[in-house]
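agent> fetching stored inputs for the adenosine-5'-triphosphate docking request
agent> found them:
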Amino acid sequence: MPADPKPHAVVLEARSLVKRFGAVTAVDGISVEIRAGEVTAILGPSGSGKSTLLRCLNFLEVPDSGEVIFQGQRVRARDRDLDALRSRVGMVFQQFNLFPHLRVWENVALGPRVILGLPAAAARERALGFLARVGLSDKADSHPLQLSGGQQQRAAIARALAMEPVALLFDEPTSALDPELTGEVLSVMRALAAEGMTMAVVTHEVAFARAVSHQVVFMDAGRVVLRGTPAEVIDSPANERAARFFSRPGA
Ligand SMILES: Nc1ncnc2c1ncn2[C@@H]1O[C@H](COP(=O)(O)OP(=O)(O)OP(=O)(O)O)[C@@H](O)[C@H]1O
Ligand SMILES: [Mg+2]
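agent> prediction call returned; pasting tokens
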């Protein structure tokens, strides 16, 4: 057996991605590789382009230039490519984005039923299974607004998982939550990481990034200014902006 395992396959990749909003270049020529079975943490100051990068990776924003490569294929802004990308790459948002008029299990069953074409009973069974995985079996019949923020976010994670995605993108999944609710969401994400789920996570949770991620990408002003292992980027950053960021109180 080789001593050095092969690096994991790249699942999702940005190449020289650029996204502008008027005069603002939110993403300014970024290349990143999201590798199978790894957690990529994306950190950086507010306005550095983290959300825009994540949204470009899922084509929620169409990049102005550069490429998104998914499983070796360049994604183009046409329906066939986007449907394939979005049904295989899940996204979890800061604000959960659950449908308030649907029960929790119905939120989770919707994608499998409508997009994957599962029969109703199978979609419900799948939903209940993923709700159990995030510790929400007892809330399946509730409506989202009857849940705490942490429970709503866990339901949103179950909804993403129910599509059996090849990768999950998280945009600050805990920053709308109180500290005690943050913990329950991070522990679900830790369990997913331990199971080998491929994830890219925009987060301000430095301790989580240090403990769970394989790769840390530090952004400033639309660029990646530092990348490496958590030890390299968080604990001994060879970049002044990153050093300042990680030495701030609470980091
Ligand atoms: N839809 C939009 N229209 C105009 N400008 C935008 C839009 N989305 C983002 N921007 C701008 O692009 C830049 C990067 O924004 P982005 O939301 O990607 O940053 P961020 O790193 O996610 O910040 P935060 O940590 O506050 O979430 C900012 O200057 C922002 O104002
Ligand atoms: Mg953001």
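agent> quick read of the result: Residues 21, 24, 26, 44, 46-52 surround adenosine-5'-triphosphate (ligand 1) (CB under 6 Å).
agent> awaiting further instructions
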